[in-house]
Each structure stands twice: as C-alpha cells, then as structure tokens.
Amino acid sequence: MKHFIAYILFMFTSVGAIAQVDVKGVVIDDKSKEPLTGASIIMKGADNTIKKFAISDKDGTFFMTVASVAGCRLEISMMGFEKKNITLDNTSFPITIKMTYGAVQLKEVKIKAERIREQGDTISYNVSSFARSQDRSISDVLKRMPGIDVSKSGKIQYQGEDINKFYIEGSDLLGGKYGIATNGISHDDVGAVEVMENHQPMQVLSGISFSNKAAINLKLKNKAKATWSFHGDAGGGWSWQPEGAVWDGELFAMCAMSKFQNITTLRTNNTGEDLTSSNTDFFANRRGTGLSNCVNIGLPGVPSLGSKRTLFNRSALVSANNLWKLSRGEFKANIDYSYNRVLANASNTTTYFLDEGNRIITENRDGTERDHSLCGKFIYELNQKTAFVNNTLQTNINWNDIKLSTAGSIPTAQSADLPDYYVNNSFKMIKKFNGKHLVTFESRNEWEALPQTLNIGLNGNTYRQHVGDHAFYTHESAAYAFALKGIAISLEGGIKGYWRLMDSELSELPQQLPGLTENVVNTNSFTVYAIPKLEYWIRRVNLTVNLPVSYAHYSFDKAMANRGEVYFSPSLSFNWKPNNRFTGAIRGNIGSSPMNLNLIHPGLVMTDYRTLKSGVENFYNLSSQKVSASFSYKHTRYGLFADGMVMHSWSHQPYTLSQQLYSDYVVYSYADADNDEKMFLAVGSLGKTLDFMRGSCNISGSFNRNESKLLSQQQHVQSVNSNWNVSGKVNGSPWRWLSLEYAIRYSQKRLKISNASTQWLSALTNELTLDFVPHPKWEWQISGEHYRNELTEGMFKNIAMLDTKLIFKASKLIELSASLTNMLNNKQYNYTTYSQLSSFESQRQLRGRQLLISITLRK
Fold first, then answer.
1. How far is Cα 463 from Cα 468, in angstroms, rounded to an integer?
2. How far is CA 548 from CA 328, 557, 651, 778, 842, in A?
3. Which of 145, 663, 747, 763 would disulfide-bridge 725, Cβ 3.0–4.6 Å?
C-alpha cells in the first residue's frame, strides 16, 4: 500500500513538471543590436490578468516559468522605446525581442515642464515651450524668449546688456562668432538655453572682480551628444528681378563630445540672405592699429528693409571650428572663408543745406562689389580657479574690389581695390596665490597693412589715387591684485607703442579743387601708464573705482613738433543687487584722451569721385564726461523681464569738421574751432510670457538726441539730431493648428540746423506671420510686411510685401518646401535719411517675385 501511494504521488509530480513552460529570451535594441538592461516583461493571460513579471538583466536576458502559455501574451516596455506586444501561442523559446526607439506615452500622469526656471544666478529657458513648428534654428527660438534680444546682425543681449560668452555644453567653441551656432543648430537638438548672470569667464577672478554681464549656454539633448549631427538644405528656383535662376544651400555638421567639439558649415545662396552675421565676431576688441579706409565708394544700402528684399548677391561661407580638451586646458582652431558678390542700383538726390541756398546733386548709381575674406584664430587656454593662461593667434585677410558707374549731375566711373592684412597675437596669464593674491601678465602685438587704390574716369580724364597705410601696435603690462574680506585692490602698469606710416598720392585734381595732393606721414607714440583699482563688496553692493594715469610721448618725423602729454581718466561704478530679481547700477567717468592719430595728414585724400578729405595739421587733446544709470528686473515665476538705461555724455574737441563745396565737389577738413558735443540716450524694454497661448510679448522704446557743431562754407552750424521709436511684438500658439507672430515699430526723426524749425518725419513698420498646421505632415506659412515712410512733411510712401511657404514633412529626416517671396512683385522703394549738413533721398530696386523649391535632410 505504501508503495502504491508513493507511485501515485510520483506520477502527479511528473505530470506537473512536464506541464511547466520556461519562458525565456533576450531584449535588444533593434538598431544597435545591443542588449537592453532593465526592460519590463509582463505576461498576461487571455483574461488580461498578470500571470508573471520579469526584468531583463545586464545581458538583456529574462526567465519565467508558467504552467501554460496558451492564450497568453508578453508586454515589453522600456523608457525611450516603443511598447511591444507578443502573442505566445505557437512561440518557441528562447525568443529575441527587438525594441524600436520611440517615446513612451504616460496616460496616468501629466507632466508640465516650467517654461522658465531660476536656480541661483542661472536662468533656464525650456526650448520646447518656446519653439514653433516653423522654426529652423535655435536663433528663431531665442528671439521669443523674454529678457533675450537678438538684433538683426545676430548679436545677443540679455536685459539690455551684451552677453560676454556663448557656450555649447559649457565649452566656448566659437568665441564671438556664435552666429554660426545660432543660425545653424537645430532647435530640436537643444533642450534648454541657460543664462548665467554676473558671469565671470575667468575662474581665477571669481569673487575678486565683479562682472555685470551674462553668458548663454546651450544644453543639448541626449540625442545630440557624443555623436555627429547633420542637416542639409538644397533649393533652386527662379527670380523675376533680377531675372534668372536662384539657389540656396547649406550643409551643417556638429559634434559635441566630452573631449572634442566641432561645428563645420557650408552655406551659399543668391536669394538675398546675408551671411555676414554668421561670420561676425561680436566679442572682437577694437584694433590697436586703428586703421580705416580712406576710400569709400561703397554701394548704396537701404535702411529698415531686410536683406532678403534688397540684397542682389552671390554669397558663400565655409567655416570649420574645432575644440580639443587636453589634460591641461584646451586648444581651439577656427577658420572661416567667405565670398560675396553684390550688385546695387539706386537713384539718389543729395541736398546740401547752405546759407546762400541749398545745393542739389542727382545720381543714378550702378555698381558691383566683390569681397573675399579669410580669417583664422588659434587659441590655447587654461581656465582654472588658481591659474588662467590664454594665447590667441589671429589673422584676417580681406580682398575687396568695387566698381561703380554714376550718371546724373556728374557722370563718372569708379573702381577701388581695398585689401586689408591683419595679424595679432595676444597672451594673458593670471596666477592666484594663497587664495587672495593675483599676478597678471599680458602681451598684445598687432600689425596691419591697408593699401587702397581708387581709379576715376571723369569728363574724359582719368584720376588714380594710391593710399598706403601701415601700423604696428604693442601693449605689454603686469598687474598685482590683493583681495580680503570684500575688498580687492589692484595696480596695473604697462607700456604701449605705436608706429604708423601713411602715404598717398593723387595724380591730379579737377581745376576747381585747391590743396595738396600728397601725404607722407609718420606717427609714433610711446605710452607709460598705471591703473590703480579698488573694488568693494558689502552684502549686495559692489563699488568699483578706477584711477588710470598715463604719460605719452608723440613724434611726427618733422610733420609737426614732438610733444609729451599726461592723461587722467577716473571712473566710478556702483552696482546694487538687493535680491535676485532687481539689479541697479550707476556709472560715471571723466577724463582726457588724445585725438585720433589717423586724422593727422595735411594733404587731400579722395574718398570718392566728388568727395575729398584732409586731416588736421596740429595735435589736439579731447575731454569728455559721461554718466549713466540702468536697472533690470525679472520675475521668472511669472515670466516677467524689464530693463532700462539712461545715459548723458559731454565731450569737447578743440577742432571742428568743416564742409566746403567747390562747384559739385565736397571737401571735408578740420579747422581750429571749439566743438562741444552732447548726447542723451534712453532705452527700455518689458517682456512677458503668455502661457495661456504658449507665447510671449515685448514692448521696447528708445530716445536719442545728439547736438554738435560744424563749419559749412566757413560758417558755424549748430545741428541737433533727434529720433525716438517704440516697438512691440507678440507671438504664440492660441490653437494647436495655428501659431502667429506680429511686430510693429513706429519712429520719428528730426534734424534742426542753426535753430531753423524743421518737422518730424515718421516711419511705421508692421510685420505679421501666420503658420497653419492642418496635418502633422503639412504646414503653410504666410507672412506680410507693411512700410509707411514719410518722405517729406505730409508726403508718405506705402509699400506692402507678401510671402508664402508650403512645407511637407515626409518623415523625421526629409522635408520638402516651396516658397514664393514678394508675391505682389514690388520692385522699388523710396526713403529719406539725414546727416548733419545734408539730406539723402533714394529710390532703390527691390528683389522681385521669387520662387524657391527646397529639400531638407536631417540626421
């Protein structure tokens, strides 16, 4: 009996064991074939009840045992991958489960990210909450973020102040040429834009030297890190003015790794898009050589309207930027080449305001300009809390030639060759000792050559002028600073040397024009200086006092007597930050400085076919005073940003610009006469997020008044130039299928000459863009611009421009579009501008109707 019972138990146990099923397998990434750790595997029965549960291990494998798999299924899920369901009927094990990348929708929990978040001195903007479907680059999104302003040139300001650094993942790859990044990086690759207030770029100065500037850092999404990102655009079409084929193309590549960063871009177009903003160094210091072109026959430009309306161009830009992070420091190499060929045609009327009666000159100008630019910058930098080292080698080579034909009062043909060669090496080292002592050494050496050739065909005669201009500048300095309990005292001392040789020769002058036609000028200077500086912190107040004093010796190789001068220019700044929301500042400075040494040349230089200019024959000192007050306020919780600034300056020059007309020719020179200039400026802005429509709005305004004296026909002229403007813009997505942007700007300007009563002239601009998304794959944009300019008192010129664009998003990687610009086919634009002694009325050609079909590829 016992044996029988044991036998029965054995049979039941064996049958149970035979009925058990081992469900096992491996979970892998369908794309990379790598195993996935932490995937959730749930087995559900036919009644949808959970029978078993497992998690994939480090090898991606899982294992579970059930009595039967009939009618069962597996649900596999993992963050970042699409959920997968597998029916187990007739399935053999082990099984390989391939997961596809995709978003996981959480139905049970709704998460709403803050649009703007504040943590200490860092403000973080959520890019996705400001982005629109029509955006192509992060620059489009930055323009909508309250507190951040992006000018037409591409320069970025935060709360009314220029930023002092632009980072990508904490690295300064591009320096001041950050337009390459803002115009190239897709907004879809950026998770957040961080604004770091009171940013001190050199860590060694943190807590010792105060900074009121902000920096911007782009925080990339994970998909854009540690990999190469590419996108390319290619478009072709037809233009009705100028008539012919048009093209627009771009290739952009970016890599952001822990030890290496690269941005390489190639752009070309003839559609009127100006590429110079992508190649402008917004952090560039003023060159110590101080040279500038004497010859100026530049093509006529158009205020107010954008380049896509007025620029007849063929442009190309190649930019390669690399950053390597070394064991100590980092090395950067930035190389850019650009080419621009620009055509321009204009009809102009210039009126010179004279006591004996106005002089009027008419011109029809038709010209071509070709410009080549090659720039290289190579930087080694070590930026640590105890030491800072930077060596920058920079070179800029420009080739520029212009041809301009003019009909009208004085028919003529002009051509100019204007190359520019520049080399600069700058070295800076700062060392901190015992946490409170700083020693700094700096060395800067620059060389520049600016040869200029002007050829003029006039009344059957040919005039040729050559100007040679060469300069070398050196600046060597050392400084010591001591910081203790909120007080920092520093003393900087150094020497500056400047050597310049300028020569010019004009073969002959028209008979109406008197004066010398040759210049040979040597201008040399040697300066010794000292700058005591005091910075004081108490709670949230910073007080900074600078007391620079210098002695300069000037020699002019017998052109005028050698001389020595002492200059003293103290400055004071007071910054108050009672809390993280409000900042106020007051700044002021007074002092004296030498005149622009490049003005020293007694002979005439022809700047264009009817304009000549001579310099000064004596040495002058200038004096100036300036005071300003500014504030900024932010409340990130409500998305509110405000800033304002008022500035008043006075300057005194013992020489005055003089204008003299000889028939149709204009000669500018300088005379011994006091000139007191005054300038008043007030600017302000207010920005606010509009969360109910996922948008933002901004209101800004400014007022500017300049007062100065000149000589015209040997008579003193007092000129007062005043202008003010107010503007507003709003953007948002009131519905899922519609987003909009609207901007309005109204301005007035007035020029008063010798108290003569003149009227204000106004200008009004409206811009509206509507973006319709009837289907996730389709998008239709329509935009319009309206300009209303007052040419003379009570006489207005109105012009409206209309564009449209249709976009088809074939996939995440491919996009097709067709755009039609200037649908109304406006071909001319009139405007009037004023200088101190003249008015300028112009009629310019506009780009006509233009059709462009494009394809965009992204990786």
1. 17
2. 35, 29, 19, 63, 47
3. 747
